[in-house]
Write a structure and sequence with these properties.
The complex is a heterodimer of chains A (220) and B (111). Chain A is an alpha+beta fold and 220 residues long. Chain A contains 6 helices and 9 strands, in the order H-E-E-H-E-E-E-E-E-E-E-H-H-H-H. Chain B has a 3-stranded antiparallel beta sheet with strand order 1-2-3, with helices on one face. In chain B, strand 1 and strand 2 form a beta hairpin. Chain B is elongated and about 70 Å long. The chains are: A alpha+beta (220), B alpha+beta (111). At the A-B interface, helix 4 of A face helix 1 and helix 2 of B.
Chain lengths: 220, 111
């Protein structure tokens, strides 16, 4: 890994940790796999984006010492607003982009305002899988909540039909990499099996279709 | 960034995606700058009183715009913050442009 990217990640984790933001968020998306080097021996993650996604499980009763904007300012991030969609993200000149996501609520609006953190989190489907589907890893002394490998794989599968061809292929490669490691560890495999068996009818069909369409020898 | 495999098209698509992102970010920076006053802040002392001014170049002229007395701490703070924001975002825009050049150079290898 390019050292500067690792340093950038550490600086983000550090400012979020020091401002109590970290305990309220879960790293999801492909940057979650970076943390799997902590739980899978010899694991080499496949990260092809500078877009870091954080899932915010709760949008109320969040206590933080600083807003995200205040926390990120010292490391040169600006809050960028899209006035049309009300979405916002935090951008750095090196190309890193930080976005906050929340599960889809009944109102189905595009974003949910999280006042204490000062962010508009984009609402997306299939994210509630991370409400409990996360692990906590130690990263340079900071406890980071990261999508569990099983939840990571499952979420990528469930959203696959909405992905562009390019992203679909990138996701498939990442799914295969992580699933190979899940298979090697009984506790992770048991979690994956439990997750598959807990899927509703529609999601189970999506899962089955995905493994058939891609000739995967995954748990059925 | 960690990339597995040596497929040229994968590398190219990653670079293209990053270029797209950095161009988008440049637009965000430019928009932010448009909403901030241009120029540098300085303090002028007259009759033992301190006043805040903004120095700005308009065409060939240097314009000194009076902002407020430093005793008006709220307004002074706000103007100083705006000036700091302008300087920081301008610098970030320049850095993003450098990043764009770096990406374009890298992409040339795949043309």
């Amino acid at each position: 890994m390019n050292k500067s990217y690792e340093e950038e990640l550490l600086s983000i984790i550090k400012v979020f940790g020091d401002s109590d933001i970290l305990k309220n968020i879960v790293v999801i998306g492909s940057w979650a796999t970076y943390f799997y080097i902590k739980i899978f021996e010899g694991f080499i993650p496949s990260i092809r984006t500078l877009d870091i996604d954080f899932y915010v499980p709760k949008d109320k009763n969040i206590t933080v010492k600083k807003t995200v904007k205040e926390a990120l300012r010292p490391i040169n991030y600006e809050q960028a607003f899209d006035t049309r969609t009300e979405k916002n993200k935090f951008i750095s000149p090196s190309g890193f982009e930080i976005e906050f996501l929340a599960k889809l609520r009944r109102n189905r609006s595009a974003v949910v305002r999280i006042d204490s953190m000062g962010v508009n989190a984009e609402q997306l489907g299939n994210l509630d899988i991370f409400d409990y589907g996360y692990i906590e890893v130690d990263f340079e002394g900071y406890g980071v909540k990261v999508a569990s490998p099983s939840a990571y794989v499952m979420q990528k599968i469930l959203i696959s039909s909405k992905r562009s061809k390019e992203k679909y292929n990138k996701d498939l490669e990442s799914i295969l990499l992580v699933y190979e490691e899940i298979k090697k560890q009984e506790s992770h495999m048991l979690e994956f099996i439990k997750l598959v068996n807990s899927l509703g009818k529609v999601s189970r069909k999506k899962y089955n279709d995905y493994i058939i369409n891609n000739n995967l020898t995954f748990y059925k | 960034m960690i990339i597995l495999g040596d497929n040229m098209s994968i590398l190219r698509s990653v670079l293209e995606e990053e270029l797209e992102r950095i161009l988008r970010n440049q637009t965000f920076y430019s928009e932010m700058l448009r909403n901030l006053p241009k120029g540098s802040i300085y303090i002028s002392v007259r009759n033992d009183k301190r006043y805040l001014y903004r120095k700005n170049r308009v065409g060939k002229k240097i314009v000194n715009e009076y902002l407020c007395s430093l005793s008006n701490t709220e307004k002074a703070k706000e103007e100083i913050q705006k000036s700091e924001d302008y300087a920081r975002i301008s610098k970030n825009l320049q850095l993003a442009k450098k990043e764009e050049l770096r990406l374009r150079k890298a992409l040339k290898a795949y043309e």
